[in-house]
Design goal:
Helix content is 67%, strand content 0%. The chain has 85 residues and is mostly helical.
Amino acid sequence: MLADDALADRIETDFESAGLEPRRLAMLRYALKLTQSPAEMVRNDVESLRIAGFEDGDILELCEVVSYYAYANRIADGLGVSLES
């Protein structure tokens, strides 16, 4: 959770130019690629997270959270479930 509304707005608009530290940028780049083009993931995507300071357990958790979110949304979409605003 971010306590800085201006930072949250910058991240939502364009996280690449939001002024984030390299660790967060690596995490968001990984999450975006896994979400938008999962078949294009390669070993180097994981290595980029390690270089940014993530441990293997952190990387597993990040992958699980991103993947579960996509899965849950596809289940809801596939069943025509309306989500609360």
